Amino acid sequence: MTFASPFSIAIVAMTALALLGLPIGHAMIAGSIVYLLLAGLDMGTAAEQLLNGMMSNYIILAVPLFILAAELMNIGSMTERLLRFCDALVGRFRGGLAQVNVLQSIIFAGMSGSAIADAAGTGKMMQNMMTAGGKYRPAYAAALTAATAVIGPIIPPSIPMILYALVSDASIGYLFLGGVLPGLLMAGAQMAIVAIGARRGNFPVEPPTPLRDLPRVTFAAFPTLMMPVVLLGGIYSGATTPTEAAAVAAAYALAISALLYRSVSFRDFYRSMLDSARTAASVGMLIAGALVFNYVVTVENIPEAIKTWLTGLDLSVIGFLILVNLLLLVLGCLLEGTTILLVVVPVLIPTAKALGIDLVHFGVMVVVNIMLGLITPPYGLLLFVMTRIAAVPIRDIVREVLPFLFAMVAALAVITFVPEIVLWLPRQLGYQG
User: Fold this and answer.
1) What is the pTM of this model?
2) Calpha distance 202→369 (Å, rounded)
3) Which of 239, 265, 336, 409 is spaced 20 to 30 Å from 399 by Cα?
4) What's the total number of domains in the chain?
C-alpha cells in the first residue's frame, strides 16, 4: 500500500470528511465509494454491502429495542423508585449517596445496555441529590456518575457486546454471561475509591431508612428490579433470542411505567419514541458505514496483513493482549467506541483466533477497554454528557474522574490476565470455550 493507492486516498477522504463535520458513518460510506471508484470496482457494491449487512443481521434489531427500553424507563417513575431502593440499602454509610450512585448503575446496567442511557437516565437525578445542600462537589458528583455509567454495557444486556458479536460471530448469550463478574469487579473498584474518598473528605452520612420501611421501598421498586430477571431469564432459558428479549424489555418497561405506575402520558411516550428513533438512526448509520468500509478492508486483505505482521513479531498471548489493551486505550481517547468496535476490532480478531485466545474473553476485554474510553480525555463522551448535565467545566470533571479511571484500569488488568473471571460463569451454563 502506497500513499497514492486507492485505499490510502480513501482513508484520507474519510478522515477529511469526518474532520469537516460529516458524521463518521456517512464519512465511511463516502470513503468506501471513493475506493471502489479508484480501484475500478462496481460502486454499486457499496449499496449491496450496506443493504445485505443491515437486512441479514437480525441481531442488529436488538440495538434500537434496547435504546427504546431505556427511554421508556426514563419517562416513567422506574428510575426514581430504583434510586429510593438503592438509598435504603447503602445510603446510611459515610459517603452513602456516592455509594448509591454506584449501586444504581449496577442495577440499571441490567436494563439499558448503554452507558449513555445510564448517565442520561439517572445522571441528572443523582447530580441533584448529591449536590443538594452542598453535600458533594458538583464536579465530584458528575465524575462519579460518568465513571459508574461505564458499568452499564459490561453487565448484561450490552449494546457494545451485540456489536462485537456481529463482527466476531461469538455467542451473545455467553458474552452477556461473561460480562457479569467483570462488571461487578469494576463496581467494587469504584466503591473502594468512594470509601477511601469518604474517609479522607469526611463525606456526609445520610439519615438511614428505618428497617420497617425497607419492605415498602423494596415492594415499590420490585417490578423495576424484576426487569433484568425477565430479560436475562428469557435469554438463558431459551425462551427468547437476545433480539426478542430486547423487544420484551421495551414492552415490559412500557407496561410497568404506563399501566402499573401510571406515570406516562401520551406526550411522554411520543417523545421517547422520537428520541429512540433519532438515536437508533444515528447508530444505524454508523453500523451501515462500518459494514461498507469493512468490505473495503477485506478486499485490501488488511486483516491478513496485520495478522502476518503480528505473527512476525512473535508475540505471546500475554504480549498480544497487552498490545491490544494499549492500542484500544489510546484509540478510546480519540475515537467513538462504536467506530472502534466495528472498524478496528475485526482486524484484530484473526490474530486472536490464531493465538488461541477465547473470543468471549477477548470480547469482554475489548468492551471494557472501549467503555474506559468514554471517560478518558480528551474525547471521553461521558465527560461531555456530564458537563452538560452538571454545568461544570470539563477540566474539573477530568481531575475528579482520574482516581476512578486508574482503579478501573487495574480491574482491566485483572480481567485481561485472569480469563476465568470472564469465563467461569459461561462455563457453568455449558460454554465449551
Assistant:
1) 0.79
2) 32
3) 336
4) 1
